[in-house]
Design a protein that fits this description.
By secondary structure, the protein is mainly α. It contains 8 helices and 4 strands, in the order H-H-H-H-E-E-H-H-H-H-E-E. About 17% of the residues have low confidence.
C-alpha cells in the first residue's frame, strides 16, 4: 500500500468519525415535548428563584452587620418551626447553623440554575429572540406587555415586529433554550412526578443534587 492510498484511508476514517460525532450531538440535542414542558416551567420560575437568591443574600448581609442569629430566624419566620423533628428553641445556635447550611445549599443550587439560564439567553444570536427572552423570562414581563414593547423599534438595528412574529419568536426562543438547557444538563434537575396521588400530567419541580 503506497502513501496516497494510506492517506485516503485515513481521511475516510476521520470523516466517518467526525460524522458519527455530529450524529451523536444532534441526537443528544434533539428535544421532545417533555423537554419543552420542563423548559417552559423553568423559565417561568426564573424570577422566583432570583427572589430567593436576593432574600438569602440580604439575610447574610444582615448577619454580617451584626444581627443576632435568633433575630435573623425571627425575621425569616423560622422560629418555633420544626427542623428534623426538633424545636428550634431547644438549641437556637446549633439549629441556626443547621438552617444556614441548608439555605446555603439551596442558594448555590439556585445560583447554578439561574446562571445557566442567563448564559443560554445571552448566547441567542437573533436580536429579537434574545430581547424577547429577556423581557419574558429574565424580567418576568407579561406576554401582552412584552409583545407591545417589541412592536416598536427598541433601538437601532432592532426594528418593531408584529404580534404574529413575536409569537413565532417566542416559540423559537423556547425551542433553542430547551436545546441549550438540555446540553448543559440543567434540565436534568427538573423532574416530573407521576407518582401516586398526582394528576395524569404529573407534578413538575426541581430536584436538588445529592450532597455527600
Amino acid at each position: 500500500m503506497n502513501d496516497n492510498q494510506m492517506c485516503i484511508i485515513n481521511n475516510l476514517e476521520n470523516e466517518s468519525s467526525d460524522t458519527q460525532k455530529i450524529v451523536q450531538v444532534n441526537f443528544f440535542d434533539d428535544v421532545v415535548a417533555v423537554d419543552i414542558r420542563k423548559t417552559k416551567w423553568l423559565l417561568n420560575k426564573y424570577t422566583d428563584l432570583i427572589d430567593v437568591i436576593k432574600n438569602y443574600e440580604y439575610s447574610l448581609q444582615q448577619l454580617e452587620n451584626g444581627m443576632a442569629a435568633y433575630d435573623l430566624l425571627s425575621a425569616e419566620g423560622s422560629v418555633a418551626k420544626r427542623v428534623t423533628g426538633q424545636e428550634l428553641t431547644a438549641d437556637v445556635t446549633a439549629n441556626a447553623v443547621l438552617l444556614k447550611d441548608q439555605r446555603h445549599i439551596n442558594y448555590r443550587f439556585y445560583l447554578l440554575i439561574t446562571n445557566n439560564i442567563c448564559f443560554a439567553i445571552s448566547n441567542i444570536r437573533d436580536a429579537h429572540e434574545r430581547l424577547a427572552a429577556k423581557l419574558l423570562f429574565l424580567d418576568g414581563m407579561k406576554y401582552l406587555k412584552a409583545q407591545q414593547y417589541m412592536s416598536r423599534e427598541y433601538k437601532k438595528g432592532i426594528h418593531g415586529i408584529s404580534a404574529t412574529t413575536f409569537a413565532d419568536k417566542r416559540r423559537k426562543v423556547i425551542e433553542n433554550l430547551a436545546k441549550s438547557l438540555k446540553v448543559n444538563r440543567t434540565l436534568d434537575f427538573v423532574i416530573i412526578d407521576y407518582g401516586r396521588g398526582r394528576n395524569k400530567e404529573g407534578e413538575i419541580g426541581l430536584r436538588m443534587p445529592e450532597v455527600n
